[in-house]
Amino acid sequence: MLRRLYDWTLALAARPSAPYALGAVSFSESSFFPVPPDVMLVPMMLARPDRAWRYGAICTVTSVLGGVFGYLIGALTYDTIGLWLIELYGLSDKVSLFRSWYEEYGSWVILLGGLTPLPYKLVTIMSGLAGYNLLWFILLSVFARGARFFFIALLMSQFGPAIKALIDRHFNLLAALSVALFIGGFAAVKFLL
Questions:
Q1: What domain of life (predicted)?
Q2: Measured between alpha carbons, how far is 184 from 193 in angstroms, rounded to an integer?
Q3: Which of 70, 121, 132, 142 could crosslink 127 through cysteines, CB 3.0-4.6 Å?
């Protein structure tokens, strides 16, 4: 199944609608959707290494905009939508601890959440709930998300064909590792908080 999704995403890169789909996934992942944009981003960059930087920019901009949306969910609708999303991810009992982390390490929480496989939507919603400075939140998000997506663009533009060959040879192993990282990000938030 994952192999078909990977092949489908490679084929999607040639379609004119591909950047819009990538932007939609990136936006929604930053505020409510559980799947990171890397699932589309990497195959699209592999299929079109000449567009790697463009795809990185699309992910950065839409991720930050989605992050602002997540921030607003936390700031304005936490008692309804925000709480429902936090409960959906099984973290409602960790909210007070997360808020205390913000008081002590606010900027670092945003930077780590933007750079790592930790679920960024939790960072954005909690940033709004904690009342973190919106301008600083946006600047830190631009830095963290931009660093993440442009690093991937650098790798794909420089080593795309070699990476594609590696993925094609070891797809099952790499898919399993990706799933483990995805689940590990949620588990890290659940158990570290």
A1: Bacteria
A2: 14
A3: 132
